[in-house]
Amino acid sequence: MQASTFAEAASRVIRHRLTGIPLGRIAGLVALDQGYAVQALANRGLAKALGPVVGLKIGGTAENTRKLINVEEPVLGEIFASTVQRSPARFARAAFVKPGIETEIAVRLGRDLPARPKPYTREEVAAAIATILPAIEIVDDRYEDFKTVGGPTLAADNVYNAASVLGAEKPFDPDLALDRLAARTLVDGREVATGTGAALLGHPLDALLFAVEKRRRLGRGLEAGTFVSLGTMTMPQWAEGPSRFRIEVEALGAVELELV
Known about the structure:
This protein is of the alpha+beta class and 260 residues long.
């Protein structure tokens, strides 16, 4: 694709994100790296409306989620400051097209992980974590057909990300068995799904390493202070109308959200 085509695609992503008009597959985007190139351009424009990028999300760290969105590897998206709230949070249901709730573990970096020629190790990315927390990601099915929109277009549009709700942060304990942490999702007080940290590429630290390495290969790093939402441990729960959500992650705590 030519630079002008990337720019046109980025303008389309911005327009659809800000208006809520469903986004269709972007012609000419055939590789994930092309989608990330459009994402970088689009997010510069979106930051003018939504605030600076403060976080990163990983879509498709669970195998069943990758099957749902028809991608072969996890896809990264960026998170804007104005879309982040602390628990308990309240959002207007009408602000989204078709919102879904994901039950996540997030980490906040205490040191930079810059782009570099040498690959990162699991130990290095673990050492960069300052705090860990439970989180809800609000995803939004703002696509004409999520089954056919394709990974490159999803990457260009930050992979469904619409908002995040963050729980209380705790100092990261490297001895915590993250892959065995149990999680559950409740809707209007009723448990609807359960899962464990093993859903996140087998281990949450492996999910983080994937994200860091993908960014490194794209020539991009992650700055200290950034939070990374590592993917959903249970299937997304779609909100047809006003609802109350609560997620609980063993050893980390709970996060509450109300869509009104």
